[in-house]
Amino acid sequence: MFVLSKLPELGDTVFIVLRKKPLIFLHWYHHITVLLYTWFSFTEYTSSARWFVVMNYCVHSVMYSYYALVSMGKYPPKMLAMTITVLQLSQMVVGCAINIWAHNYMTTAPPHTCHISQINIKLSMAMYFSYCVLFAQFFYKAYLSPKPGKKAKTEPVPEVSPTKKIEQTVNGYPRQRNGLVH
Q: Do 132 and 92 touch, CB atoms closer than 8 A?
């Protein structure tokens, strides 16, 4: 079922293209490589894939719920979008850790005790590591880097003549700007 679920996931790519929105490299790279890797892993019945499936379904259930809300015109707080990206990054880190664990296990375990091939571990590790780098870049660009053309929000300070002091109050208290009472 997981392998087959990767085909409808391409639908969000179609919606992005039809809406004439920019399609970032991370998006199409992720969809294509996951599709190819799941098909390859299915042929081997890869044991570590069970971990990957559970992580993917958990993160995607939150992510596609978020997309559904946005498509209905409901815009959740930005913190939810950040949380989803952190979940995706966590998924990639855990994916790398599982591959390292599987590789270490395969080097010490008797033959045929773990149903995974060395080529599968290498492909999965390359895929998860590349995702980790790409999602980290996406997180930085989307949430941490300064946006070009955006100025910092500053509140204008009214000019006060030296002879006339303007007393501004809010709810009976002097108005404060940047911690200073004016």
A: yes
